[in-house]
Amino acid sequence: MTSPIIGYARTSTVDQEAGLEAQQRDLQAAGCTKLFSEQLSSVATMRPQLEAALDYVRDGDTLVVTKPDRLARSTADLLGITERLRSKGVTLRVLSMQMDTSTPTGKLMLTMLGGIAEFERDLMLERQREGIAKAKADGKYKGRAPTARRKAADVLRLKAEGKSADAIVEELGVSRSSVFRILRSN
């Protein structure tokens, strides 16, 4: 009997349906018998389907992802996940790099490529910050208007009408902390 091959797919937003479907198709083509998928940013505190996949895998299994950035948010995160898998006797395959951590070369490649991916992301964020700074200097960038602050008058009015914080949250669609922040500042 062959060991199970488990796939994990992730896109950053729900708008990326085609990307998620492409990952799922590639994972099934790679022989994955069970798939875990989610649509949320890798910077999200919890990635429930990733946690479910990591809890599900057993000794001798292989976890497969299409690209390393679908699995981890940084080199440290990637290495932590890889160590967690290794401690359970699970190998990791990354399809885009034809990498398999069951081999010494695969382990080396994972560490090196994880570092390169983090370096590229840092460069991209640096370029983004530079672009925003230039746009601000040119008066073309204002940033996102704080949603709750625009509704401060409504929060105060509803509170004066005797509404509870929970009722204000429900009616205006702002967070509970924003309601209390507005009430404290007035």
Describe this structure in words.
The mean pLDDT is 87. This protein has a five-stranded mixed beta sheet, with helices on both faces. The chain is of the alpha/beta class and 186 residues long. It is 56% helix and 12% strand.
SS summary, helix count: 9
Structural class: alpha/beta
Cα-based radius of gyration, to the nearest Å: 22 Å
Which regions have little confidence, pLDDT < 50, spanning 5+ residues? none
Strand order of the largest sheet: 2-1-3-4-5
Name of the CATH architecture of the largest domain: 3-Layer(aba) Sandwich
Largest sheet: 5 strands, mixed
Distance between the termini: 68 Å
Total number of domains: 2
Indicate the topology.
Layout (H helix, E strand, L loop, with lengths): L4 E7 L5 H13 L4 E6 L8 H9 L5 E4 L2 H4 L3 H13 L3 E4 L4 E2 L3 H34 L9 H4 L1 H9 L4 H8 L3 H10 L1
Parallel strand pairs: 1-2, 1-3, 3-4
Antiparallel strand pairs: 4-5
